Amino acid sequence: MKLLKCKFPLSVTAILITSMALASVIFTENLRALTGTSIFKLKACPKENAASALYKDTSFWSTDDIIDEDRIEFDPNECRIMDGEWVFNSSVEPLYTDETCPYLDRDVACQRNGRIDRDYLYWQWQLDDCILPRFDPEKVLEKLRGKRLMFVGDSVQKAQWLSFVCMVQSRIPEDQRSMHRTHTFSVFQAKGYNASIEFYWAPHLVETNSDDPIIYDTKKRIVHVDSVSKHAKNWVGVDILVFNSYVWWMNGHKIKSLWGSFANGEEGYEELETKVSYRISLKTWANWVDSTVNPKVTRVFFNTMSPTHTRSKDWNNTKGIRCYNETMPVMKKGHWGSGSNRTMMKVVSDIVGRMKFPLTVINITQLSEYRIDGHVSVHTGGKIPLEEKKANLRQFVDCIHWCLPGVPDAWNQIFAAYL
């Protein structure tokens, strides 16, 4: 007995094929919603290293050839820079190394100071919904033509300044650039552009008895909460100002806070809770900006706090010693450690929110929170041998400052996009 072969009309066949294709696309896009992976993203394999060995999932990789129809061109008014992930991309080398940039301080030159692993150099911050443009030294220098750019703050802000200088200096002929440095004020000149990239030391923004020279015993520091003029006179006439102030406030005890003048002696201070002294001081700074700076002439930025990673339990490494020997970022979305104080961040939000000046806040905190691998750790140089530091980790591991090249380069990439 022969089985009859059923032949469907052409129109029915077309409908079936179309339905099957549509179902396939719907299934794929549903899978994409669960996994975050799109069939429209094309990715190339990076070099073999510790990062690629650990993360076989290609969603952690990135190349210039990625096509993502869901992400838009960067718009400062639309894009949230804190929403994103670190992606590994070994195909793009940093714009400088601690050997090629002659201005880099020894204490942040981690490779020169014996750091062996290199994966930390190749993590790039990728926004969820926007395309963050790469740092283009030539374009940045053109934006700075005829202008003064000044970073103001502490040693973390100093590292961002050094990073910025190192990212552009190779594009400037050696005879067309110069550097003059002091403890409190340093200036890099790009002569052909008639531009300067400067750093001014003011870790509390307001005046203190520890500005210069530094008082290393934090219990003896006194913050002059209502005086900013001594520092601010050096900010007048600058075209672009970038401020930060956080780490120096977090000393673990109350802040000795003074009103009036140091000329009248250092007696009469009050010991205030950190957030109270910080609020008063930041308000003093904000009042100066509102009353003195012309928004038609000067742009002002404020960087949120740079996280410290001094408690390894924050990222579930119960046997770790701070950030020592960490070689990978935290990949848990929204990770927030004890080294970033939300109360202090709210103080910034409250003060800036009441300012008349159209200041731009750059939120570097969340993206930096993930980078437990980016700190200098024991690779800080100096007279103490590396092996001696490793033998006394609790004394020598530095989880406040960042290696260069490294995380501050990403801050400057974002800053350049705002420019």
Automatic annotation (TrEMBL):
GO cellular component, one term: Golgi membrane
Pfam families reported in the protein's UniProt record: PC-Esterase (PF13839), PMR5N (PF14416)
Main location: Golgi
Start and end residues of each Trichome birefringence-like N-terminal domain: 78-130
InterPro entries per UniProt: TBL (IPR029962), TBL_C (IPR026057), TBL_N (IPR025846)
Localization, UniProt: Golgi apparatus membrane
Domain of life the protein comes from: Eukaryota
Location of the Trichome birefringence-like C-terminal domain: 132-417
Positions of transmembrane segments: none
Keywords from the UniProt entry: Golgi apparatus, Membrane, Signal-anchor, Transmembrane, Transmembrane helix
Membrane topology term: Single-pass type II membrane protein
GO molecular function: xylan O-acetyltransferase activity
Family: Belongs to the PC-esterase family. TBL subfamily.
Protein name, per record: Protein trichome birefringence-like 3
Naturally occurring in which organism (per UniProt): Dioscorea cayennensis subsp. rotundata (White Guinea yam)
Gene name as annotated: LOC120264513
